[in-house]
Write a structure and sequence with these properties.
alpha+beta, nine-stranded antiparallel β-sheet, globular, 4 helices
Length: 181
């Protein structure tokens, strides 16, 4: 299932944030088997930064499936400090549980939120994402899905960074829902 519009059509400027696209190496895109992706860095007027990555797969099959940040982050040298969940308020007012991690590499620390998005669902669990993929393949003959990851660095105020990431993630849910089928 193709996207309604390319992921790059997510607004570059909204709610006081200005974004710029970051390139992914072609070998990474090919290795992940992505059909479309967004890798963007946003900054607000006070200098806070947020990164967003969205990787979209038109069809998941053997060898081409969404890779969990639980595997990718440690592979890139980031070590988990804490892990858990947080709730985001969706555009319809319902709550969606997403993964929340604090990671560290040397002296650098980040808050990472991520979830799987497909067919109007926001899913935290890798297992449930796979279960829905199988059920949707049987029921509606679709295995398309996206991984959405929001990352913000922080130095001292962990709670502020968590709130910044959650607020940003809530604001992008609606535009993402209009792009990801």
């Amino acid at each position: 299932m193709p996207l309604s519009k390319p992921l790059g059509s997510l607004p570059l400027v909204f709610d006081g944030w200005r974004g710029r696209d970051l390139e992914l190496e072609p070998r990474i895109i090919k290795g992940l088997g992505l059909d479309d992706h967004l890798n963007r860095l946003y900054q607000d007027e006070s200098g806070h930064q947020l990164g967003i990555y969205v990787g979209y797969y038109k069809s998941q099959r053997a060898g081409i499936v969404i890779h969990s940040p639980k595997n990718c982050l440690p592979g890139a040298g980031w070590q988990p400090v804490t892990s858990g969940y947080t709730d985001l308020v969706q555009p319809d007012g319902k709550r969606a549980k997403v993964n929340m991690y604090e990671v560290r590499k040397g002296l650098d620390r980040q808050i990472v939120l991520y979830w799987y998005q497909s067919h109007g669902r926001v899913i935290a669990s890798e297992y449930w994402a796979k279960i829905y993929m199988v059920l949707d393949a049987i029921r509606i003959h679709r295995t398309d899905a996206a991984l959405v990851r929001v990352v913000t660095p922080f130095n001292e105020n962990r709670a502020e960074a968590r709130q910044r990431a959650a607020t940003f993630a809530e604001r992008i849910l609606e535009p993402l829902e209009s792009l990801v089928p």
